[in-house]
Please model this.
Amino acid sequence: MTSSLLRRLLALALSLWLVSPARAEPWEWEIIDYKKVPHIPAESVKEFYRFDSLDRSGSQLVFRQGTGLLMRWVAGSDSIRINGIKFSLSYPVIEHEGRVLVSRLDLQKLLDPVLRPSYIQNTKPFDTVIVDAGHGGDDSGARSVRGTEKSYALDTAKRLAGELQKLGYKVRLIRTADRFVSLSERVEAANQIKDAIFVSVHFNSGLKPEADGIETFALAPAGGSSDADGSATAASFSGNHRDGENIALATAVHAMVVQGAPSMTDRGVKRARYNVLRGINKPAILVEGGFLTNAKDALKVDSVEYRAALARCIALGIRNFNKATGAPLPGSQSGGGAKGKSPR
Model:
């Protein structure tokens, strides 16, 4: 990856967060109950986050702020796009009595931390990244005719460790060889490490060979649905204490990865209740770097160049998350600016 290309990718990924500060004065949100779920109208979102314009064409809404931020909603869709990056929602965008609404849960747990990562409450500085290579030993994970997920994940994890160390981070690998580590053991090991975040590296499989692309998972919030199986629960897990940081980390990494692999399909930033995310006591994400059951993806994943680029982009995404939340970078003495209240 050339230095000029790297600079362009960093600029594109960071542009996701070029949003002006939301209103500092007390703000009374208009709340509309729809099927017993609180929702917020698009006009209120536009005003609070100081978008310059909100344009509607049929079921499609476009929010613009200068030349650096563009958000798209479609009534009836269970996803939105911010600067081209796809985000899955806990509830679909709806049209009700002529107005387009987003759920309050999605506003609190997705839109606000993505649009204003420096306002996330109680963020903690970190200097260590825990890198978890999925599967291992008797558990090969997904397979292609060229190789196994456990091998690709371990190779990518080791490359990611090297890239992070170049950026000044300490790294702890959950596994360094082809051995089986249970999910509970992964969580227990990670939770013992202080001042850290957690990144689990995987490669995907699908029931249909046409399924392809990259997706990044954060823990689904309490009350929200899981993209893995569609289930919803009001239960809260240890990992939900870091919901804001989880989605901001997923955003930073995913934005960097999809910009660095433009030929791969962007399947979006998603939510799930995977075991390695539920019990974690620190910001955590799971990255799926491509489908081994898809011929084109499998060919790319088998390439050393692709895995090296994937590792580099994940590392740069972590640094972008570090900057965006205002936490001090490795070796620095102080963090960023003041925090503000997220919408309630």
